Amino acid sequence: MAKKIYSDAEARQRKVQRQKEYCQRTHYAANNRYHKNAFSQLIVYENKDTTMAFKEKCKRLGISQRQVIMNAIEKFLEDNKVFSK
């Protein structure tokens, strides 16, 4: 019989860690494939003062930055749908 390198508790801990790492890798890969097909990325460059003020205000109000931007985009599209064909 082979000599044990790790105690039972250590072996169990290492196995759990390997399983977590595997799940994390496969989970991220699956999410990335989904997001690549379902979403588009919008990148905006703004000066640091404005960006920091925006982030702080969102945090203070308990609103996600994404939600503020999505509301602005939806409002813009709704206000300007007369021009779309």
Q: In short, what is this structure?
A:
Helix content is 71%, strand content 0%. It has helices spanning 8-38, 48-61, 65-79.
Give your account of this protein's structure.
With 85 residues, the chain is an all-alpha fold. The chain has 2 domains: 8-40; 42-85, Arc Repressor Mutant (Orthogonal Bundle). The protein is built from 3 helices and no strands.
CATH class of the largest domain: Mainly Alpha
Note the total helix count.
3
Helix and strand sequence: HHH
What characteristic shape results from the CA principal axes? elongated
The CATH architecture category of the largest domain equals: Orthogonal Bundle
Strand-pairing-aware structural class: mainly alpha
CATH domain topology of the largest domain = Arc Repressor Mutant
What is the total domain count? 2
Rg over C-alpha atoms, rounded to the nearest angstrom: 24 Å
Largest sheet, if any?
none
User: β content, as a range?
Assistant: under 5%
Low-confidence stretches: none
Oligomer: single chain
Average pLDDT metric: 88
- Alpha-carbon distance between the two ends: 77 Å
Percentage of helical residues? over 70%
